[in-house]
Amino acid sequence: MQLDYGVMRAPARLIFGPGQRKALGRAAASLGSRALICTDTRLANSPLMQELLDDLAAHDVSVEVFDGTEPELPLEGIRDCVDRHREFRPEVIIGIGGGSCMDLAKMVSLLMKYPEPVSQYYGEFKVPGPIVPVIAIPTTAGTGSEVTPVAVIADSDRAVKVGISSPELIPHTAICDPELTLSCPAGLTAISGADAFAHALEAFSAIRRPPAPGMAMERVFVGKNVLSDQYALSAMRLIFANLEKAVKEGSDIEARSAVMLGSTYAGLAFGTAGTCAAHAIQYPVGAQTHTAHGLGIGVLLPYTMEFNVEACESVYAEVARAIGVDAGGTDHEAAHAGIAAVRALFQRIGIPVSLRELDVKDEDLDQIAELSMGAARLVENNPRILDKHSVRSILDKAMSGA
């Protein structure tokens, strides 16, 4: 293993453990006296929200709540939140919920400091400087947004979702309380966990670039490196061993804790290494079918692994041995056993085996392949060279379920 290059970016504070949501009041008060909470309607009307509001009040933090977060985070919703709460002049933004709530907090923080148009920030390193401090509190275990430099939004002027990637977007504080995932439904637990596993797998198998001085100041996602590898391997071990139990025995706090820790580790891994083919292809699949991100990722990952294996056989073998699938044999045997094990796990937790089950149409495959190539940073990060023809071959297999 090449050990000469690594990049680590993370929140200033990362607090993990059951019950740690009770640290919010003190954490927020250390950053300011006015807090804006970004969440959704369900959470805004829950006992959890009242508990958090009481804690903030006890620490003399005044609060406004925006409860209009929508799935897939449309740009119009971000502007609505900013317009409603700009005069409040929040000193800290708190994102509570799934990935969209945390990404909303990041985007509102950005637009509270810097002007429109939002499109000027699309891509990497376009955020001009620090944003309003963000506290991220996930209630699902999947996106890793609580620790990543990314916000993904839906812009009606674009065919697929777009990303803003900058170290400035990393939340100041992440509070990861596994108790908040206990009420997460089985189906959402499954697809969120599949997404988290894919984050770790794709970070670990991403292309390894020559360690040019200053690369981390020029690329948000530098590819496979010695620091992201450690988080990625730990994430895959935790998620593979515990996801099925978290899905099927949702009250098991140990399994929930392991999957949430794995998801956070995966976020730390891909936040510097980046992701690859499954994510590049999911964006247009999701746009075409209006299906959840993690669902598309779960369907696609085994097929992208089959495509990539010839370029990263030893890497996939290391993954297989780390998750306990194959302790011996050749790299070839271990790598293919690992792919089969991932496919089997996803099937056991209810992930569909084909894109056809997501209502993808044969006549849309060429367009999906072409749009996938538009995710340049993901395509370039893939361990095997991707072009429109090879993406189409992955799609064909994913449609057949073979």
UniProtKB/TrEMBL annotation:
Its cofactor is Fe cation. Keywords: NAD, Oxidoreductase. It holds the Pfam family ADH_Fe_C. This is Iron-containing alcohol dehydrogenase. GO terms for molecular function: alcohol dehydrogenase (NAD+) activity; metal ion binding. Residues 189-399 form the Fe-containing alcohol dehydrogenase-like C-terminal domain. It comes from the Bacteria. Residues 11-178 form the Alcohol dehydrogenase iron-type/glycerol dehydrogenase GldA domain. PROSITE patterns: ADH_IRON_1 (PS00913). Belongs to the iron-containing alcohol dehydrogenase family.
